[in-house]
């Protein structure tokens, strides 16, 4: 019998034809926390900005943020007890001055 040559190319030949992807770097995973929330809370706390906090049930609370952590906010209020709010109960919040300016801009209701 004669020596037969394999039809299939060797692995070394294949590696030379198709380079591996080691030349490119992997994309970095985006940061889990951007610190935007922390920056916003710290700014409002330092200025003692009057805030309106709207809860998921529609209740509006007015006060300023004294402190916060991962799960809670402490809302100080005038002529009312201070509150510890869980963040998951907060629908949204905004500055109280935006509420006042929105009321001033509203046109009078026509009859």
Automatic annotation (TrEMBL):
One of the Pfam families matching this protein, by short name: Hfq
Region described as Disordered: 1-32
Protein's GO biological process: regulation of DNA-templated transcription
Family matches, as SUPFAM superfamilies: Sm-like ribonucleoproteins
GO molecular function: RNA binding
Domain of life where this protein originates: Bacteria
InterPro entries per UniProt: Hfq (IPR005001), LSM_dom_sf (IPR010920)
Name used for this protein in its record: RNA chaperone Hfq
């Amino acid at each position: 019998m004669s020596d037969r040559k394999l039809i299939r190319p060797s692995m070394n030949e294949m590696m030379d034809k198709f380079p591996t992807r080691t030349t490119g770097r992997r994309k970095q995973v985006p940061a889990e926390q951007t610190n935007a929330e922390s920056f916003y809370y710290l700014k409002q706390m330092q200025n003692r900005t009057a805030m309106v906090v709207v809860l998921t049930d529609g209740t509006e609370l007015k006060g300023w943020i004294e402190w916060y952590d991962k799960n809670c906010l402490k809302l100080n209020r005038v002529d009312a007890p201070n509150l510890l709010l869980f963040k998951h109960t907060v629908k949204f919040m905004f500055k109280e001055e935006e509420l006042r300016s929105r009321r001033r801009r509203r046109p009078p209701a026509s009859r």
